[in-house]
Write a structure and sequence with these properties.
There is one protein chain. This protein is an all-alpha fold. The chain has one domain (42-501): Hydantoin permease (Orthogonal Bundle). The protein contains 21 helices and 4 strands. It has helices at residues 52-63, 66-77, 82-104, 106-110, 114-117, 119-122, 128-161, 163-166, 176-195, 197-226, 230-234, 243-266, 268-271, 277-310, 317-321, 327-360, 367-380, 383-386, 390-419, 444-458, 482-500; strands at 14-16, 22-24, 170-171, 174-175. The chain has a two-stranded antiparallel sheet. A hairpin with a 2-residue loop joins strand 3 and strand 4. Helix 2 (66-77) packs across helix 3, helix 7 packs across helix 9 and helix 9 (176-195) runs antiparallel to helix 17. 54% of the residues are buried.
């Protein structure tokens, strides 16, 4: 089939409100057919009600979780001091905020989720490529968080049952009781999925402040163990500020960016409910960098304290909490981890892949089915290997995620902002033969840009501990800059291919 996009055709069947938001014209039937279902349709402006506070609160809830804690504490474990770790994380979140706001713009303006937004650049069918990539990354995160929750159950049960639980026979490198704890936490989340989203929302309302209090309690406990806050600030960097630090800084920065590169793509899933562009812009700007930096600050101080007390940094908060002899304190800490992991994992790592898998086959895969697919794939990704040590967690997992998703972000931003000037046709996003159909539903320019950017971004990366070696050793010099390489390459190549084909796409 030939390329059938029609950039000269004006948008129809939609109205633009004075504040710039767009919705389907009154009386216009909603899109239907094989590329639409209720979850993927535009949110009417009357239901776009999220305020600045709502978006800030969203980021408070997202950031206060165990994975965010290990993000910062892991930098201490690989040799940084508290100042270097906080600096790296603060800078990374300021950088990733930029594509977060750029891609989030389409949400309040058009009320569409990420998979539908991606159809403008990749094609109605081609959007399944970035959607599935994003979904598989979410599966990895879901598995890692589930492993963390299983650890909390394992240590909690060990304190209550005794050595017979913690010293059980090992299978596959871990006690069989750890595998059982992992399975229990996995099943608990599947049960909540089955009950529906209302159960999840009730958890989210109080989990974030609960976790923040838990982090402050751990800070107080560690400072008392260390003899004051002085030792927490006094732990020296093993790297200094010379060449050794900067050699570690760049891959660490890319890894920190990679942590939220997932949300920088699917943030329209949330901003589509925004009351205005101002609400999503200020809400995210106030919520993301400040919250992540504060939580990182707490994390690195506690981890530095563990280095002073135990002679080595304990980067995993579950294992650190297990070192306390205070049963009440231990129970509070581990229950905090369980609650936070449960609420954040389902909200942050289940909503998006459920939509993404639904986008592959809207008539056959519902939101609930997509969520169950995510839960199963999360186990098959072997999250215990990804989380086995801070080196593999930061440089392998986060580095690969950042490089791959940065490639998608580059295409989305270039298409929406530079070529279309933020103008989309809502109806055509859901139908075959329209301006976003391209060739058989695929825009080959976006696919080529994605593949080229992806190869350059992650081709030279180390995949340890999953496998030995690098896929393309000649590209190893680019591996430390994966997110930037992927975003830059894909955006420039996509623009070049589009302009070379003589297509002016500013009108859609």
């Amino acid at each position: 089939m030939t390329d059938t996009a029609h950039p000269a055709i004006p948008t129809s069947g939609q109205v633009t409100l004075p504040d710039g938001r767009v919705e389907l014209a009154p009386g216009t039937p909603p899109p239907s057919g094989p590329y639409a279902n209720e979850d993927l349709l535009p949110v009417p402006t009357a239901r776009r009600t999220w305020t600045t506070y709502n978006f800030s609160a969203l980021w408070v809830g997202m950031a206060h979780n165990t994975a965010s804690w290990t993000l910062a504490s892991g930098l201490i474990a690989v040799g940084m001091d508290w100042k270097q770790a906080v600096f790296t994380i603060a800078l990374a979140n300021l950088i990733v905020l930029v594509p977060m706001l750029l891609t989030g713009h389409a949400g309040p303006k058009y009320g569409i989720p990420f998979p539908v937004f991606a159809r403008a650049s990749f094609g109605v069918r081609g959007a399944n490529l970035p959607a599935v990539v994003r979904a598989l990354v979410a599966c990895g995160w879901f598995g890692i968080q589930t492993w963390i929750g299983g650890e909390a159950i394992y240590f909690l049960a060990g304190k209550l049952i005794g050595d017979s639980w913690t010293d059980a026979a090992h299978v596959g490198g871990h006690a069989w009781t750890m595998w059982l704890s992992f399975a229990i936490f996995w099943a608990l989340q599947v049960a909540i999925i089955h009950r529906g989203m209302e159960t999840i929302r009730r958890f989210e309302n109080w989990a974030a402040p609960f976790v923040l209090v838990g982090a402050l309690v751990m800070l107080w406990w560690m400072s008392s163990k260390a003899g004051g806050v002085g030792p927490l600030f006094g732990q020296p960097s093993r790297l200094g500020w010379g060449g050794e630090f900067w050699k570690l800084f760049w891959p660490s920065l890319m890894g920190m960016i990679g942590f939220w590169s997932t949300l920088s793509l699917n943030i329209p899933d949330f901003t589509r409910y925004g009351k205005s562009q101002k609400a999503q812009t200020w809400g995210q700007a106030l919520g993301l960098p400040t919250t992540m930096t504060l939580f990182a600050f707490l994390s690195v101080l506690v981890t530095s304290g563990s280095q002073a007390v135990y002679g080595e940094p304990v980067w995993d908060p579950v294992q650190l909490a297990a070192k306390t002899d205070n049963v009440v304190g231990l129970l509070y800490a581990l229950v905090t981890v369980l609650v936070a992991t449960l609420s954040v994992n389902i909200a942050a790592n289940l909503v998006s892949p459920a939509f993404d898998f639904s986008n592959v086959a809207p008539r056959k895969v519902s939101f609930r089915t997509g969520a169950l697919i995510t839960a199963v794939l999360a186990v098959l990704i072997f999250p215990w290997k990804l989380y086995s040590d801070p080196q593999s967690y930061i440089f392998t997992w986060l580095g690969l995620v950042g490089g791959l998703l940065g490639t998608v972000a580059g295409i989305l931003v270039a298409d929406y902002w530079l070529l279309r000037r933020t103008r989309l046709d809502l109806a055509d996003l859901y139908r075959a033969g329209g301006r976003y159909w391209y060739t058989g539903g695929w825009n080959w320019r976006a696919v080529v840009a994605f593949l080229a950017g992806g190869v350059l971004a992650i081709g030279g990366a180390s995949l340890k501990p999953l496998i030995d070696g690098r896929p393309v050793p000649a590209l190893s010099p680019l591996a430390d800059y994966g997110w930037a390489v992927g975003l830059g390459t894909s955006s420039v190549l996509y623009l070049a291919l589009t302009l070379a084909s003589g297509r002016d796409r500013r009108t859609g």
